[in-house]
Amino acid sequence: MFYRENGQFKSNYRSDQQIFPVAQDRYAIYVLIAAAFLVVPLFATNYFYQAVLIPFVILALAALGLNILVGYCGQISLGSGAFMAVGAYAAYNLQMRIDGMPLILAVLGGGVFAMVFGVLFGIPSLRIRGLYLAVATLAAQFFMDWLASRAAWVTNNSSSGSVSARQLEILGWHISTPMEKYLLVLAIFCVLALLAKNLVRSAIGREWMAIRDMDVAAAVIGIRPVYAKLSAFAVSSFIIGLAGALWGFVHLGAWEPAAFNLDMSFKLLFMIIIGGLGSISGALFGAAFFVMLPLVLTLVPHAIGLPLSTATVTYVEHMIFGALIVFFLIVEPHGLARLWATARQKMRVWPFPH
Amino acid sequence: QAQEQYVPALVYRTGQFAPLGVPWADGKLDYYKLVNARGGINGVQIKYEECETGYDTARGVECYERMKGQNGGAPGFETQSTGITFAVSDRAPGDKMPVFTPGYGLSQSVDGEVFEWNFPLLGTYWTAADSIIQDIMKKENGNLKGKKIALVYHDSPYGKEPIPLLQARAKKEGFELILLPVTAPGVEQKSTWLQIRQQRPDYTLLWSAGVMTPTAVREAQATGYPREKIYGVWWAGSDHDVREIGQGAKGYNTVTIHNTAAKGAVHDAIKTELYDKGQGSAASAASLGQLAHTRGMVIAMLQVEAIKAAQEKFGKDKPMTPEQVRWGFENLDLSEADLKELGFEGIVRPIKTSCKNHIGEDWSRIAQWDGSKFEVVSDWYQADQSVVAPLVKEYADRYAKEKNVTPRDCSAVQ
Amino acid sequence: MAFFLETVLGGLMTGMLYSLVALGFVLIFKASGVFNFAQGAMVLFAALSMARFAQWIPEWLGVQSVWWTLALAMAVSMAAMVAIAWLIERLALRHLVNQEPIALLMATLGIAYFLDGLGPLLYGSGVYGIDVGMPKEPIFVLESVFPGGILVSKEDLYAAVIAMVLVAALSLFFQKTRTGRALRAVADDHQAAQSIGIPLSRIWVIVWSVAGGVALVTGIIWGSKSGVQFSLSLVALKALPVVILGGLTSVPGAIIGGLIIGLGEKLSEIYLGPYLGGGIEIWFAYVLALAFLLFRPQGLFGDKIIDRV
Amino acid sequence: MNNATAPAGAKTILEVNGIEVIYNHVILVLKGVSLVVPEGGIVAILGGNGAGKTTTLRAISNLLKAERGEVTKGSIELRGERIEALSPADLVERGVVQVMEGRHCFAHLTIEENLLTGSYTRKDKGEIAANLDKVYNYFPRLKTRRTSQAAYTSGGEQQMCAIGRALMTNPNLVLLDEPSMGLAPQIVEEVFHIVKDLNSKEKVTFLLAEQNTNMALKYADYGYIMESGRIVMDGEAQALASNSDVKEFYLGVGGDGRKSFRDVKSYKRRKRWLA
Amino acid sequence: MTTRNIGEVILDVKNISLRFGGVKALTDISFDVHEHEIRSIIGPNGAGKSSMLNCINGVYKPQEGAITFRGKTFSHMNSRQVAEMGVARTFQNLALFKGMSVIDNIMSGRNLKIKSNILLQALRIGPAEREEIVHREYVEKIIDFLEIQAYRKTPVGQLPYGLQKRVDLGRALAMEPQVLLLDEPMAGMNMEEKQDMSRFIMEINEEFGTTIVLIEHDMGVVMDISDRVVVLDYGKKIGDGSPDEVRSNPDVIRAYLGAEH
Ligand SMILES: Nc1ncnc2c1ncn2[C@@H]1O[C@H](COP(=O)(O)OP(=O)(O)OP(=O)(O)O)[C@@H](O)[C@H]1O
Ligand SMILES: Nc1ncnc2c1ncn2[C@@H]1O[C@H](COP(=O)(O)OP(=O)(O)OP(=O)(O)O)[C@@H](O)[C@H]1O
Ligand SMILES: [Mg+2]
Ligand SMILES: [Mg+2]
Fold this sequence. Notes:
The complex is a heteropentamer of chains A (354), B (414), C (309), D (275) and E (261).
Chain A: H1 13-16, H2 23-43, H3 46-72, H4 80-97, H5 103-122, H6 130-150, E1 163-164, E2 168-170, E3 173-175, H7 178-200, H8 203-213, H9 215-220, H10 225-252, E4 254-255, H11 262-275, H12 280-303, H13 310-331, H14 335-349
Antiparallel strand pairs in A: 1-4, 2-3
Helix pairs in contact in A: 3-7, 3-8, 3-10, 3-11, 3-12, 4-5, 4-6, 4-10, 5-10, 8-10, 11-12, 11-14, 12-13, 12-14
Chain B: E1 4-11, H1 18-37, E2 45-52, H2 57-67, H3 82-95, E3 99-100, E4 118-119, H4 125-139, E5 148-154, H5 157-160, H6 163-173, E6 176-182, H7 190-199, E7 203-207, H8 212-222, E8 230-232, H9 239-242, E9 253-256, H10 265-273, H11 291-314, H12 322-330, E10 333-334, H13 336-342, E11 351-352, E12 363-369, E13 374-376, E14 381-382, H14 385-403
Helix pairs in contact in B: 1-11, 2-3, 4-6, 11-12
Chain E: E1 9-20, E2 23-34, E3 38-42, H1 49-56, E4 64-69, E5 72-74, H2 79-84, E6 87-89, H3 102-108, H4 118-123, H5 127-146, H6 161-174, E7 179-183, H7 191-207, E8 211-215, H8 219-225, E9 228-233, E10 236-241, H9 243-247, H10 250-257
Parallel strand pairs in E: 3-8, 3-9, 6-7, 7-8
Antiparallel strand pairs in E: 1-2, 1-4, 4-5, 9-10
Helix pairs in contact in E: 3-6, 5-6
Domain ABC transporter (chain E): 11-259
GO molecular function (chain E): ATP binding; ATP hydrolysis activity
Organism (chain E): Lampropedia aestuarii
């Protein structure tokens, strides 16, 4: 009843091209962002920051990056863990090897390195498609796993093969409490999400989607597959690499090569599929699902005092997790974002069923 | 109302390494239960809680973060994983949280001046490797010149830990060290063992984990490499690693930090006080005396003793804070007599830690698979300090520099 | 020279073992267009059933004969795999008809998670052995030509033969039978297949059961080689390059792909590895597959990717 | 005009009663469609794009689920039996087969293999061979291309393949969705001939959705006209063909004979019965 | 018909042959297209009509022959170059971007004209935003023209077939082409819709002067609106000329039209 766009007339194209043409949506988003920055810090505990909020925001960022590649450009990748690793290790090296390297530049540098790596491993996509490409991107994953544990220079000759980040500092702001870390990653996320949204609703975004949906037709209207695919790889790996650097620097602090293994790649892919391919909010939904669900699954039996052994709980968790994935895919193969859109659609026509 | 000491236990009962993780966790729990059954630590009951890591660093860190502040604070973490140790070691000084890693962890964390909060009690990978080399030297009459020794290792920080020591040893003794990494999980090792067949090393060290161990032993069998010439680290030398191979693994050696075959009074106590009453953690009492299970008991015992030591100083009948327990770890002193009283006689050696020395003792011995069980076949070896100590110093200093740690001055600590 | 031959032989044998796993992938893909990431989990589950029932059956039934025990254990395990196939169809696939390949792929990942939990829950998480009497000791051939002869693992040899037989049988099945044809039709277009009366449900149960059977054979062979434990499910990762190299839709491709990958991987590790620091075989296998794909994007024997406008 | 009545004299094979279809839980497409198909008849559903013809056929053959659509109201009866819950395969066993819009041949199978998949529900080898012969007889073109992969045959050949494949199931009710689309005029003629032939010789009943009103009304006995999810008109084919509205809007014939396409740009008409 | 002045040869196809393995899709085909005319290609199914279009706009590479466009001759050309030269097309089996809305589909037809780089697009400031709006205005005109205002934001996958065909046409129009290749734009439409489509085609042709190459099976349409017709059969050209000439060509009658027409 109240959620209607009736009466909101667009008198020019600029207003029609806003990200959220429906005014209610726009206000809701402002409120949400304000809440994320201002209200959350009022009640979140350190544990909540560290176990939920920070990983959630960073993973959402990585998922956002991957969604550009998979959701928008249609190139399935199982190598996102590797791109994160490149970002993290590159940022680490930049900081270690160049004295006085500011954190932000190091993190951005991580993104840039990941971008180069991504473009390199994106080249096969010009020939190989679909599931073949998906499996082929595993080459990037295993190569990076190997490189990180085998090439001493990657870890700056760290004795153990595990590396750790320096004290986080931006222009004299020492970022040490979980709240500060959260605000940092949240700010970065918001900026990148906005940029990404702009990209996908601009010409380049249409090129990506065109390549995804029908590449022959895209070529016929003058889209160069090479440029479209590689630019998607570049933008996507840049964001993923950046997320990787944040994951290493802000979330983990110290990490070993296994922190960015195949599991991570799969998880990210899961996130965007459960969340919704080809939508920015899908990354958020997916990341939330993936961060929250295991915690809920661990805490619930604990809270209701089920006398199960940890092993049993873990196995049952695995099963529930697997079952839920299938369940959500059945309910809505296009992800939580679409489910949400459908709900909104219903709301718009409420109280009528259609 | 009885006082309670909260003790979080990171475990991995699932995942790739569950076969090792399960008895290890059961051993820890059994000992806590025994202590509780006997009235707790000076009357303070242990309130233990498991957290499943699946040997995954991220999940381990999550457990750590969640548990460190609960129930009045955790008295320290035994991470059960090299990766989690790395991650947690960075946070420990800030959180003032002891991290104890008996038989694993960072080899250089023996140095208590740099690593105030780490306690790699009983042994590190360097001491393990050193003992193995000593055993080999004994077999070769003290001369390894011109010999070849291969290290087949899990390609991870864990597998790579012994390399610096082996390199130092190779230089000193004049043997050739062949490094053969195996990519996790190691279900397929044909090329590794073909290389071994080609290069014919005189001995092969195995730094493996999970499925990698039995696969390696089976490949050795399939390529005809004598099992007597293989030495596994202590995480590759549990019954379950070779049980299914049976006779095929006969002769396979492993280094151990405690007396595998021995069953002490504590085993009997656990049997009668827990398992006979149906309160044991493992499925059956048959687990008692198994290598990993016993190791879990030893580890739990060390933790309890550290708490006890802390109580001696800071006051009995109450739970200890992490900082107090840290003091306890640093001032452990278990004599032969103490161990006997605890029922661990003949299982572990006396241990004494200090501000400088966080390992306590670094003796280990070799056990061999006789086709159905592991038998201890060597005497105790102590790691050669002339080799290990400089390495510890070098690596600890490097760590201190990397992390901006200002080493404590132990002469100022009493 | 002898060593080189040994390496080649070893590589080819390993390749055949990979082919077995790859076969499971190809079967399901070819027959339903689903890239089944749960194949590894199915291998583990099947192997666990086999290992545990081989242990339990004598305890429960007092069966003495080893062969009876094995036969019974195998029958029970096969029944379990069929049951799983049936459940997967009922609860998952049936509701995902006509969805995009990537959604189906994710669903199989969900199934993999589920099985990874269910397996150890039912059967325990220890290390179990499967002993079907595979010989463990090596044999040496051509001793007259090369000093010391060439080492051949008898166990691998047996496994290779079994793989060959399976592949031959399945190839025939696909090309010649009514069901084989229906399976290929389903892979091309779920909806059209439904429209002409091919019962998707039954077809899927059949395919997944056959894939379960292949998983069982794979599990037995791999399990008897390296023991049954959780990591067994990870052999799937070694089979993926084989699948794409051979072509997702080609049963013989699984064999050829396996041979190429096995060989390439061993040669690279032994002759190239030492210069790069070792441990290169896993990514090398993928790079090798990638290199082939650049020339034939559908894999060596895969069906040509058709796009017409 | 909602409750259609069966044309007098014939037994009813299919009766659709006020069905409503919703896609994706929100898109309401059919708003109460009823129709009746007599045994041995040829019934045409006519109507513009998006009217819901395909959806009606899908609802009958139960192929909606794969499109995330569902029948939310109404009933569908085949010879008096409710069939909403049956699977498409069950329906094929009962002799109902749909030829889907847009051909949908199995791209990687050869033409002959495509045809043979149609005989999946048939067990008798002799019967299958006979059916195959019959199809080749109707479509000699297919015989010449029997070994080429379906994806590489032309649109017309694919359409024949799809129809032939359906005939391989030995159906007694065929739901034919836009058989003429993309076919050369000669072939369209041919296809409709075959439909008529099968109808008269083998007593196969046809329910076809068509845009080509001209052709459809020429060959069908009875027609339903659909607009935006509703049946707006129905009647005997001849009656419809001579109705002036139908003439104007669906046949392009004004009061003074066929209009040239050249002239349409000058004016734009609206259907009278649509608001 | 008289208002348009048919110009010079704009597109000249010379001796094109195209084979797929053993299948000869096109054999030695030559024909030309004059500026501003409506040129139809007809022929039975599988004659090679679509393949011909595919050769012209670079999707297929013919083994032999050359194509001259505005005096420039080429035998191998990639699709982008063709697009840049001002050739647009629609597809027989709908090759729309299914996941995108109607507006986005048509906007993508303007991508060639977008000048701002990826960074500007990310920031969406200044020229990038202005450009979006300018092109959007153009696209809205096309939408009005094709009378699909109501479906602006609908994902094209959900549109009925006939509307999808219009969107396909809209996308091609957005490229402001000089030559427009239409592959069966009226397949699957009823009379009224065909009339609409014919109207669009003629208006495009007359008002923008766009040259049109049309493949269509509806002889009514072809004969009514085209200036000249090429007839293909089994990859060979069997007729070429005005509708009336073609209609009376015995080869064409035998191979395609049948007796009735
Ligand atoms: N899978 C789907 N999801 C959502 N909407 C759909 C789907 N399929 C069809 N529709 C909608 O249902 C309506 C009716 O479509 P249907 O395909 O039944 O029409 P039709 O009469 O067959 O048209 P055409 O002549 O174009 O084939 C259309 O508006 C279409 O957009
Ligand atoms: N990519 C391809 N690979 C193999 N053969 C092809 C390919 N494209 C077209 N052909 C073949 O070329 C011939 C001509 O096909 P084309 O699609 O050009 O016919 P058409 O005249 O457009 O027919 P229709 O009217 O049915 O659309 C057909 O025999 C077809 O099988
Ligand atoms: Mg339709
Ligand atoms: Mg065509």
